[in-house]
Design a protein that fits this description.
By secondary structure, the chain is an alpha/beta fold. The chain folds into two domains: 87 residues, Arc Repressor Mutant, subunit A (Orthogonal Bundle); 160 residues, Rossmann fold (3-Layer(aba) Sandwich), CATH 3.40.50.10490. It contains twelve helices and five strands. It has a five-stranded parallel β-sheet with strand order 2-1-3-4-5, sandwiched between helices. Helix 7 crosses helix 11 and helix 8 runs parallel beside helix 11. The chain is elongated and about 70 Å long. The N terminus is likely disordered.
Length: 284
Amino acid sequence: MTSSKTSANSFVRRVRSQLESLSAAERRLADFMLEFPGELASYAASELAALAGVSNATVSRFIRRLGYASYEEAKRDVRREKESGSPLFQAVKNDAGGQVSLIATHLEQSQSNLARTFGQLSDEQMQDIVTALVEAPRVLIFGTRGSHGFVRYLRWQMLRVLPSVVAMPEAGESLAEHLAGLTPQDCLVVFGIRRQTRQISGLLEVASKSGCKILFICDAMSPDRSEATWSIQCQCAGPGLLDNHVSVMALCDLVASMVMEGAGAAGRKRLASIELLHEDLEEL
C-alpha cells in the first residue's frame, strides 16, 4: 500500500506513530510538537517543556521514545526539514499580548491550516484517488461524531455524477450490512478527525482484508492508519476551544470537484438526468 508522504516524514511521522501509547503529559507534548513542529529547532529543551506545559524529564523521555539519541539530534533533524521549506514547519506559537481581533485571528488560522494541508498534496496523488473513486462499483463513506457532516457533504456532491455512493451506517443500519461483499474494486473513504468512535479500527481492518482501496482523512493530531491506501492529514488547529475544520471542508470540495470532472461523459449524462427530474418533479 502507498500513503501520502510529506517532507516532514522523518520527524512528524515519528511523533504520530507514538500517539496511541502515550501518557497524558507525553500526549500534551506530542500535540504541541505536531501543531508547531518547527518550534523544536528554536528552543532549548527546557523552553519547549515550558511552552508545552510538561517537565524537562518528559521532553527527554519522549525524544528518546522517538528514536533520537539526544534533543540536539532531534533539533538538527527538524532544522533540516524546516530549511527544506515544508509548510508543516512554518507555523509558530504566537505569544504576543494585546487586544487581537477574533475575526482576524480565525481568518489567519484558517489560511494557515489551508496552506499547510494543501501543501502536502500532489497532483499525482489526487489523480490516483479520483480515478479509484470514479472507477469503483461502490464508494462507501464513513465518519462519526464531528466527521458525520463531512460524510454527508461529500456523498451529496459525488452522488450527482457517481451512481453508487453510500454514507454508512445510516440510522438503524450496521456496518456489516455495508461491508459484506466488499471487493478490491470498491473504494472506502474514512474520516478519522478526532475524536472518533471505536468502530473505526474494526472497519479499517475488514476493509483492508477485502483489498479495497482506502482513503483515510484525518487531522494532524490523530494516529496514522497502516491500512490506508492514501492518508491525508488536515491541519485543524483552532485559535480557541474548537478545532478549525476549514481545511477538511476544502479537501472535500477539491475531491468532489475533481470527481465531477473525472466522471467524464457518463457523469455529465447522470447529472443532466438528475436536473431533468428536478424539473419533472418540481423539486426545486
